[in-house]
Amino acid sequence: MVDVAVVPAAEGPDPSVADLLAAWLPGRRWYPGGTGDVRAEPWLAVTFDDDGGTVGADVLVLLVRLTGPTLPGGEVVVQVPLVLTDADAPGPGYIGTVATPSGDVAVHDGAAHPACWIALLHSMGIGTDDVEGDAAALTRRGRVLAGEQSNTSVILPEVPSPGGSGGMLKILRTVAPGQHPDVVVPQALTEAGWDGVPRFLGALKIATPDDATVHLAILAELVPDAEDGFELACDVASRGESFAPLAADLGRVVAEMHAVLRRALPEGPPVDPRAFVAGLRRRAAAAVGEAPALAAREAEITALLDDLERRLVAAPSPVATQTIHGDLHLGQALHGATGWKILDFEGEPQRPVAERTAPDLPLRDVAGMLRSFGYAAAVGRAPDPAWETEAADAFLAAYRETVASGLEPDTDAAALTALVLDKALYEVVYETRQRPTWVGIPLAAVDRALGAVS
Ligand SMILES: Nc1ncnc2c1ncn2[C@@H]1O[C@H](COP(=O)(O)OP(=O)(O)O)[C@@H](O)[C@H]1O
Ligand SMILES: O=P(O)(O)O[C@H]1O[C@H](CO)[C@@H](O[C@H]2O[C@H](CO)[C@@H](O)[C@H](O)[C@H]2O)[C@H](O)[C@H]1O
Fold it and tell me: Could you list the residue ranges forming a coiled coil in this record (predicted)?
């Protein structure tokens, strides 16, 4: 076991390390500051007391506070794990060398360095008994997942796991005080005995000097030979084959996930129709404000939301909310030998953290997946225009056979259309910012959702 100590960063590394990082951070894929004017200030330093010397190098995790107008809420804390070694022996993830009063030090990105993986695993109590005297065996075939996005994930086939496939260590990049949804939700699902999520194996949580807690890393069982759901759907679409059978399986898995979450975690308050629709109106207004192409649709969006509000107000019984996935799309589903596994319960990255994890209507996840079939049809260039609706119908039929929304059929359909519209508007903003050449995909979906009620 490795003891973890947390101190203010001012008592931590030499200031030259912070200077090196200030230049390095903005080039990282997971850096949330974009090209905006951002100030980076080390906040906390986490050290690992490597009692038995098994880690083999100095591991230091810095939590860096970023402030600037382009960041969600104006402020974000990012985790920067580092490995410090002798300057004459730089290793994986080398960032640069700094001169300190005790000599030159080589600084490495810890997320790419086995010594850091071992320190994180040992501090979660993983691998300390199983790999006697040979900590390096735990990470021998370890590798960082290519194409990292919001966080950095490391494949670790030697990590002990119930199914024997190894572990996936997710090093969180943006961190925040409080319970992390990607810990709480998969842990609850795993403990409920549900196998539609990669088995939760552990997490590293630190206590800050002001008594808050922050999750830094999560370990789940590796899903062997799994295919990314979006790539799989695009492949199937491009071959002109039907996705309906796989979509039906996915519909059942998503329905089971909602049923288990409803039992395993506290229910939310019943939907307040006006507040719920006000939230949709706010998001729509923000999308219209950011994407000029939406301006012409504003009146129709308002009419659709007015209609939903009337229906929800008139609903004969209160509509329940619960923990949901919050950002469900095909890229959050892996298809492996034992079927679909659902990943990444962090919610929509562009939403404020408090909103991302609030209990919500499960139909929001259903809407997210329906939108994803539209993306797969477009990106995979499905030759048959019915490809998307066939997949969507199969998904919905299987979902509804397994779990009921509790809404009257007309209200259920109106709520689903409004949530598909909400997701498509979110995607218009997402694509405008990230992939402008794809913006036509969600714009077409906005038009279809609006056409569904006119
Ligand atoms: N347990 C796992 N087994 C196998 N692959 C996984 C597992 N967890 C995640 N992945 C792969 O890693 C990718 C990133 O994981 P994800 O949790 O979505 O991270 P991020 O928060 O960085 O987006 C996924 O798209 C999937 O391909
Ligand atoms: O996976 P993230 O949590 O980072 O989600 C964000 O990025 C997604 C893209 O990677 C984006 O998803 C959109 O594009 C997908 C195809 O690349 C498509 O399958 C989804 O349906 C569509 O929403 C997601 O919206 C965004 O939050």
Answer: none
